[in-house]
């Protein structure tokens, strides 16, 4: 499984539709300060289901929508599509290629899609749970995370290993079943 493409419209600093093609060999995104490198990572975390505006470096979810500039009006929605190669079926869905889309409007309305089929946020979160790619997964290590992992309590650190070992999905389901 590898990240093939990221399509972004109206997300943070990306007012125009932009496509990042992660062809084999691409290992880094470089650019001057403030050019939007971290916004690319925020887009990946957001489409994978991130619900906390704060961890996307904003105050509220609306802050992910392009807020306008000197020459451009603000936009009314943000949309991100992440496309993964799934030849080895690392994701439990019978497609060679899997794309997930998330869209949010200023009104607060949200839409989610897996391979262009509308779905719930929960479906996206479950699809990636235990794949090592979920929003809490170990595949994205943000600034400060290394220290956080080293300084965290044993139980908190354990959840990283549980995700890596593939048991987090079952624990989450068990917890939900117990609540009901
Ligand atoms: P550094 O090298 O300093 O880490 P970076 O390349 O990671 O920089 P980002 O943090 O990704 O840069 O981008 C920050 C820019 O994104 C800022 O100029 C900020 O104004 C802009 N930005 C963030 N949210 C929005 C938004 N909703 N609308 C328009 N611009 C935004
Ligand atoms: Mg940055």
Automatic annotation (TrEMBL):
Localization per record: Cytoplasm
Identify the stretch annotated as signal peptide in this record: none
Q: Which domain of life is it from?
A: Bacteria
Annotated ATP binding lies at: 32-39
What does the record say about domains?
Answer: Contains large globular domains required for ATP hydrolysis at each terminus and a third globular domain forming a flexible hinge near the middle of the molecule. These domains are separated by coiled-coil structures.
Family, according to the entry, reads as follows: Belongs to the SMC family.
- Subunit structure, per the record? Homodimer.
- Function of this protein? Required for chromosome condensation and partitioning.
Protein's name in the database = Chromosome partition protein Smc
From what organism does this protein derive?
Heyndrickxia coagulans (Weizmannia coagulans)
Range of the intact protein held here: 1 to 180 of 1190
